[in-house]
Design goal:
Elements: H1 4-8, H2 16-30, H3 32-35, H4 40-53, H5 56-72, H6 85-93, E1 111-117, H7 119-124, E2 126-137, E3 153-154, E4 163-170, E5 173-180, E6 189-190, E7 203-214, E8 223-226, E9 242-248, E10 255-257, E11 260-268, H8 269-274, E12 276-282, E13 285-291, E14 300-303, E15 319-326, H9 333-345, H10 359-367
Parallel strand pairs: 1-9, 11-15
Antiparallel strand pairs: 2-7, 3-6, 4-5, 8-9, 10-11, 12-13, 14-15
The structure holds zinc ion (2 copies).
């Protein structure tokens, strides 16, 4: 991986004009029509650098994340990951070196499908059948685009070469360029008898079912790449990739933190004081949580291994149970009496605090001169 700025020989804060100028200079040295064969790779690299840095959006993405950021953004409509350099040359130079007739077959476009998954799916992994709108290679013509029994015929305008030569003016001076033949769109052949099934597209639209394995521990927003499971390309072109984006639904009482889960258990103050065992709903059914005597509100009990499965390795996270001690809101007279007795026993009856020991109390004492 080479730095785009270095490739063009400009600084990181070069202006668009400087980038253009630097590219022209490099392109003059490397363009196949001028430098001849042997510089294609370098020319492609420099052109790619220019294509990125001359586009403010792409430049920003590149500045933020390098080439990976651009590759990550590819495929979803932009198609930047596999730049069509032929088209790019044409826009830059009004032509391009002749490369023989183009193939009708192209790779399909990558697609993205969002899948809603529950916390249970994420914790244990799941299998899903997903309906997608996609293209498959036309069964009638097998991708040839021609009606059965016929073949594409050689284009008479370009004699099958797919291109016509002409002298063109460009910023590099007058160069001999070849442009795509307008009769056959550069394919070198014409389809005399189009396949009716696919209107000569070589592929047909279908609703397909895709089987997806969702691994345990997958994070919300993760894209699972299903290589070659995307749409078929036109004219028998290869299948694209399908990306499954995971959308994790919120669970009513379990909160996910990585592979650990968090929940709350509300217990009465008597249980907190005396200790008890309480049932708790978990992903693994009802589990007993043992509360130690003297438990405080906010104390945590950890249930090992009841969290989310680790991604592509053994084991699971833990379930953290946060204890909330509830003070009774309504008590009857008998309960009140018992609590008062308890308070008295513990010296907590609070009728007349002997001495206000709070900071504020001490401050008050001071101010009033006691
Ligand atoms: Zn067909
Ligand atoms: Zn032609």
């Amino acid at each position: 991986m080479s730095d785009y700025y270095e490739l063009l020989g400009v600084s990181q804060n070069a202006t668009l004009e400087e980038i253009k100028k630097a590219y022209r200079k490099k392109a003059r040295k490397l363009h196949p029509d001028i430098a001849g064969e042997g510089h294609e790779e370098e020319f492609k690299k420099v052109s790619r650098a220019y294509e990125t840095l001359s586009d403010p959006d792409k430049r920003q993405m590149y500045d933020l994340g390098g080439e990976d950021a651009l590759n990550g953004a590819s495929g979803f409509g932009g198609g930047f990951g596999a730049p069509d350099l032929g088209t790019f040359f044409q826009s830059m130079f009004g032509g391009g070196a002749s490369r023989g007739p183009a193939s009708r077959a192209r790779r399909g476009q990558d697609s993205l499908v969002a899948v809603d998954v529950s916390l249970e799916d994420v914790a244990f992994g799941a299998h899903r059948s997903i309906e997608v709108d996609t293209y498959v290679t036309c069964a009638s013509c097998n991708g040839s685009c021609c009606s059965p029994g016929t073949e594409p015929v050689t284009c008479s305008s370009c004699n099958g070469s797919g291109s016509v030569q002409r002298m063109a003016r460009s910023f590099l001076g007058n160069v001999m360029t070849s442009t795509a033949c307008s009769t056959c769109q550069g394919f070198g052949t014409v389809i005399a008898s189009p396949c009716k099934e696919c209107s000569a597209q070589g592929r047909t639209h279908v609703r397909d079912t895709i089987e997806v394995d969702i691994p345990a521990g997958v994070a919300d927003g993760t894209r699972i790449r299903m290589s070659g499971r995307g749409e078929a390309g036109p004219a028998g072109g290869p299948h694209a990739d399908l990306y499954i984006e995971i959308h994790e639904e919120r669970h009513p009482f379990l909160e996910r933190h990585g592979d650990d889960l968090l929940t709350e258990l509300r217990i009465p103050m008597t249980a907190a004081a005396l200790g008890a065992t309480y049932p708790l709903d978990t992903l693994d059914g009802t589990q007993d949580v043992s509360i130690k005597p003297g438990t405080q509100s906010g104390d945590e009990v950890i249930l090992d291994g009841l969290g989310v499965g680790h991604l592509r390795r053994h084991g699971r996270g833990d379930l953290h149970v946060s204890i909330v001690v509830e003070t009774p809101r309504h008590i009857d007279s008998q309960q009140r009496e018992l609590l008062q007795q308890l308070a008295a026993l513990r010296g907590e009856d609070g009728v007349a605090p002997a001495k206000d020991e709070s900071v504020l109390g001490k401050l008050k004492d001071k101010l009033s001169g006691h």
